[in-house]
Each structure stands twice: as C-alpha cells, then as structure tokens.
Amino acid sequence: MDFADDPRAALDRLLRDRRVDYAELSARIGRNPAYIQQYIKRGSPRRLAEEDRARIAAYLGVPEAMLGGPLRRVAASAASRGRDMVLVPKLAIGASAGAGASIDGEPVEGAVAFDPKWLRDLGADPRALSIIRVAGDSMAPTLSDGDDILVDGGDAAGRLRDGIYVLRMDDGLMVKRIARAPGPGRIAVISDNPQYRSWDDLPMAAVQLVGRVVWTGRRVR
After folding, report:
1. Residue 141, preceding bond cis, omega within 30 degrees?
2. Residues in Cβ contact with 86 at an 8 Å cutoff, skipping those fewer than 6 apart
3. The pTM is what?
4. Cα 160 to the center of its chain, rounded Å
C-alpha cells in the first residue's frame, strides 16, 4: 500500500488490525462518534487536522506520515552522493519485553536518519516505520534491555507470519515472538528468555499487533 496516496485506507487497515472501532477512535481524539467513519467512508473531512492526526498517530503507535503527514527527509552528506536520508520518528515509549507499557498519547522524542535504499532492502515502507526502545529482558538473547527496534506498522495482522512483533496485550505494549499455532486464527506468543512466560495457544483476538520488528540497534557494552 502507498500510504501517502491513500491515508484513509491506511487508517482503516490499522484499525482493523488493532480491532479498534471508528467510534472508539473518535472518542479518543475528542470528536463525535461518527467522525472517523465519515472521514474513512465518505471523505469528510478531506484531510485530518494536524492535531487529530498527531493524536491518532500517538494512540496507534505509528508515524504521522502513515496517516498522510509529510515524510521528513534530511540532506545527506557528500559521501552518500546526494541521496536524501529518511527521518524515522523515535517514540517516547518502551515496548516492554517484560510486564508491558502504555503507548496512548506518548509523543515523538526525536528522529533517526536512514538511507532510503537500505530501508527498501529491508522490505519496509518508510512512511510506516517508527523506533521504539525495548524495556526488559524477556526477549534475551535476541533483544536486550535498552535496544532500539525499528517497527514496520504496515506489516501487522494483515500480513501475519512468524517473526518478532510489537503488540498490545492486557492493556500493555510488548515485544514478543509470534508463531502460528495449530487451528485457524490461533497464535503462540513467545518470550525468547525461558525464564519468562509464553502463551502456546491464543486466539488472534487476544492481541493487537502494532507492527513487525525489522531491525534492531544496540549500544556496545
């Protein structure tokens, strides 16, 4: 999907993946219950107001560019032969590899520049990316406490396959390994660290997938 060309379809897909209904999101941003449905289905308003877009992006844990906001770029150095770099927002939250964390209303605290070709080689759409910090060690040794993870919000339930995802479960934001379980609509939610709990067989309805982890960076200790 080209998020820049169709932010309504992008928002609709995000809400389906996260099982958030139109009226609930409207209430979250202080609008009347029909506001989001009218925006998606009728094209009214034609564009989200900047404040509404920012609140929705923060609630869903995605960059504003995914909802029709500008994709920020910064001029690269001469060494990159004039190629612009893509600025990926870093969200001021931690995706817990332990007990869970809240994402609702958290702001963007900065941005990190990436080479657009490198992002394309990852198979990720730059408009759907955000950076979140891992909190806790339940995904060790794969992910460590304090690692920054690059999350593709366009690669969630609609394209589900085995891998590491940021998800909401029990009102918390977590990073876990997801695998398909036997039976339709069943998944396993796995902590790579055996000292932490895993769930071998859950209905998809028990979790809300925020996005797939496509890369991680960490400090040298």
Report:
1. yes
2. 71, 72, 73, 113, 114, 115, 116, 119, 126
3. 0.69
4. 14
Q: How confident is the model at residue 112 (pLDDT cuts 50, 70, 90)?
A: confident
Residue whose tokens read 């730059």: 126
pLDDT at 106 over 60: no
What are the tokens at 98? 């332990």
| Residue 97 pLDDT > 60 | no
Distances (CA, A) of 144 to 98, 149, 174: 11, 10, 13
How would DSSP label each residue in 51-110? HHHHHHHHHHT--GGGGT----EEPPPGGGTTPPEEEEEEEEEEEESSS-B--TTPPEEE
Weakest-pLDDT range from 14-23, 87-96, 171-180: 87-96
Please list the alpha-helical segments (H only) found in the chain. Answer: 7-18, 22-28, 35-37, 50-60, 116-121
Whole-number Å distance between alpha carbons of 62 and 211: 9
Residues 60, 153 contacting (CB under 8 angstroms): yes
| Those residues with Cβ within 8 angstroms of residue 45's Cβ, 6 or more apart along the chain or in another chain | 39
Amino acid identity at 123: G
pLDDT in tens, 183-212: 888 999 999 999 999 999 999 889 988 889
Question: If 0-12 CB within 10 Å is exposed, 13-18 middle and 19+ buried, where does residue 75 land?
Answer: exposed
